[in-house]
Amino acid sequence: MILLFLFFIFIFNVQTFLHFNNNTYIEQLPSDYFYSFTKSKSIPEPYLISINDELMNNLSLSMIDRQEMAELLSGNKLLSGSRPVAMVYAGHQFGYFTSQLGDGRALLLGQLNQWAFHAKGTGPTQYSRGGDGRAVLRSSIREYLASEAMFHLGIETTRALSLVGSVLSPVYRETIETAAIVVRIAPIVAFIRMGTFELFSTRLQYQQVRQLADFVINNMYDKPLSSKNRYNLLLIDITHRTANLVAYWQAFGFTHGVLNTDNMNVIGSTVDYGPFGFVETKLQGYIPNHSDDEGRYAFDRQPSIAAWNLAKLRLAFDSLIESTYPINEQYEFWLYFNRTYDNLMRKKLGLTFYLQSDKWLYEEILRLLDLYHIDYTRFWRQLADDIIPNEIQNEHWYYVYKQRLALEGSYANKIRREQMNRINPKYILRNYMAQIAIEKAQKGDFNEIDRLFHLLRHPYDEQPDMNDYAKASPEWAKKIIISCSS
């Protein structure tokens, strides 16, 4: 009798862990064009490396047996209510158009209300193009940590719910690595890419372009857009969201690494973490991706690349645009980007009101940081305490800055310091930190993953026992190479 009772408790817990109550993507769009129903390929002996307890609480999910969760979150077992699909799209990759891409190693598992669950590394799909459909532990750890770090920095992003590994599933990349699976959580439109629109427009499938646009409108807004020029308004809004996102990347020093049109979504959030990196002592020409030989996706080129990608999206929208309402997406992008970026940089300086000359001030600071190889994140954090690197103490910017603060009556002001420390993080995910976590994980020690996960949830707090993580990267970190292969 007791065993029967425990059995029912177990079954109840499995069911209450996660039950998908909808999947708007397959409910509102036909499989003939937009996706393919796909089963995940089982992975041998999966184990739960880490779970995002904060996100679990936000989604009102219940913790169950770790091994059972590993089976469910790896795709070995079908989650309740799940009808997995691989989504199709196209994209401009490094400037060249690829007519069909798609989820070659990922599955849209289902939705819990508006939240879509997207698993990465679940095996081959119809869009794998000969690939094995797996993700490696190395890149999965980086995405798991980075997406949470970005969320708590206040930058729009997908979030990772779980990280599952399997030592018995070899993955062949530059070397033989072990497999891992990350489940990503975001509104469903976060997985609609600029390249999704390109797929149908280049095939002259204008009905599908319209269906996709209607889907985005129906699932991205609480209130309906104007019926007269709704597609114009949609394109403008996507442009503004993209401008806002890239402005935050630039202000916080984040470099995506592979800004193809299939890696930028329509909701304006960070998606598809690959060879990313935060700038440290090099700003101009910083390239985290060793495959980017020409520096197309360098840190300082991200705004221009985003504008280029939006131009491709504008072409994909041609069949939808009302000619009586002309759109200049380039003007809209640069207007919103410059406005947002300027506002963020003035906040980083601790300034409260606008002066046109402020742009010279922060641009001069960026020039000097790059010239003298001064750590970007540490400089801004220490500026609140008036700690200035010796190399630039006697430069003209410092005199101008002190005069500017005096003009606001806020020099050495406690409130100003607190405000600056709310936008200038003490902790970011430096490449060496992720590398140490990866190397330990490859030996079966996952403690560093959880340690970093909790550290990066409080990037603006002092956390005295974590001060070592706020130091500049060690010299050996310069040899770390990040690749697209994952």
TrEMBL record:
InterPro entries found in the cross-reference section: SelO
Cofactor(s) listed in the protein's UniProt record: Mg(2+)
Signal sequence residues: 1-16
This protein's record includes keyword Magnesium: yes
Recorded superkingdom: Eukaryota
Keywords assigned by UniProt, alphabetized: ATP-binding, Magnesium, Metal-binding, Nucleotide-binding, Nucleotidyltransferase, Signal, Transferase
GO molecular function, one term: metal ion binding
Similarity field: Belongs to the SELO family.
Name of the protein this chain belongs to: Selenoprotein O
Species of origin: Rotaria sordida
Taxonomic placement: Eukaryota, Metazoa, Spiralia, Gnathifera, Rotifera
